[in-house]
Amino acid sequence: MIDWTDRHCRYFHRQISRNALLYTEMVVADAIIHGPRERLLSFNIDEHPVALQLGGSDPVKLAEALRIAGPYGYDEINLNVGCPSDRVQSGTFGACLMLTPEVVADCVRAMKAVSKVPVTVKCRIGVDEQEPEEALPELLARVLDAGADAVWIHARKAWLKGLSPKENREIPPLDYGIVYRMKERWPEVFIGINGGIQTLDEAAAHLEHVDGVMLGRAAYQNAGILADLDHRFFGTAAAEPDWDGLRDRMMAYAVRHIESGGRLQHVARHMVGLFTGIPGARRYRQILSSDAAKAGAGPEVIAAAFAAVDFSGAKEALSA
């Protein structure tokens, strides 16, 4: 979710679900060590619980990045062994690390040695010509032996050559069954599932077999599905979504961001998919997409966008 789940996106999602674990974009260890660490690592305290997702293949650099990130107060550190993009491969991390499970284990071991919070791994079921039934359990065995506290598995292979990142999300077939079998093999380990999950009903079905469900693009492109998440999975009381309250909180947040030198578009771009399928959603999207990008745009754009939505049909559309 590079360029998607930045701190503005996470703050927005946190206003809809108080309990979901949020993940940062993948941040490369070298960038933390040598780059603008405050911009890369700082986040709003309201985002908790939030996990920092790291990219890298050098145990020493990952440990150093984690030492730097420690004081920021993340609730989890996640090592990405699943991203298939070309720029990730050129840095020898992401999904290509599936080919060297011993390197991943060394990275986890080094991170565990300095981390005060859980260290987890997000991986694919395999890459290229690997046989997932062999490659995936070998990776899990190594990283768990190294001390990994949990594993999140994207239930697709990644093809490192010949497919774009977008195609890698669609063309390799999903195999949820192999993820279930990994949970059966390691019943004492937290194993979560990711990949192609579109609804909370699908998430509930997966939770019959695994410990956690990760929603990526489904939550970004239709953030309204998060409105019932706390009630369904965290036992909070059922309640109508407070759309007015969400509007007001995001307007106040936008004001603070603009006053600090930012632009409304930085915040509003993550809100475009909120009311997918609800009457007035098209006009809502138009306002946020066009007006928020204009010079001098302020929180009144968010108010105008919300005013275009017919909330009387929101509950039925979001539960469909």
TrEMBL record:
GO molecular function: flavin adenine dinucleotide binding; FMN binding; tRNA binding; tRNA-dihydrouridine20 synthase activity; tRNA-dihydrouridine20a synthase activity
Residues noted as binding FMN in the record, renumbered to the chain: Q53, K122, H154, N194, G195, G196, G216, R217
Residue span, DUS-like FMN-binding domain: 1-301
EC number, UniProt record: 1.3.1.91
Residue stretches in coiled coil: none
Swiss-Prot/TrEMBL cofactor(s): FMN
Active-site residues annotated for this sequence: C83
Superkingdom, natural source: Bacteria
Keywords, in A-Z order: Flavoprotein, FMN, NADP, Nucleotide-binding, Oxidoreductase, RNA-binding, tRNA processing, tRNA-binding
Enzyme class: oxidoreductase
Reaction(s) this enzyme catalyzes, per UniProt: 5,6-dihydrouridine(20a) in tRNA + NADP(+) = uridine(20a) in tRNA + NADPH + H(+); 5,6-dihydrouridine(20a) in tRNA + NAD(+) = uridine(20a) in tRNA + NADH + H(+); 5,6-dihydrouridine(20) in tRNA + NADP(+) = uridine(20) in tRNA + NADPH + H(+); 5,6-dihydrouridine(20) in tRNA + NAD(+) = uridine(20) in tRNA + NADH + H(+)
Residues flagged as site, Interacts with tRNA: N80, K166, R169, R282, R285
NCBIfam families listed in its UniProt record: PRK11815.1, yjbN
Function, in words: Catalyzes the synthesis of 5,6-dihydrouridine (D), a modified base found in the D-loop of most tRNAs, via the reduction of the C5-C6 double bond in target uridines. Specifically modifies U20 and U20a in tRNAs.
Family: Belongs to the dus family.
HAMAP family: DusA_subfam (MF_02041)
Protein name: tRNA-dihydrouridine(20/20a) synthase
Native species: Rhizobium gallicum bv. gallicum R602sp
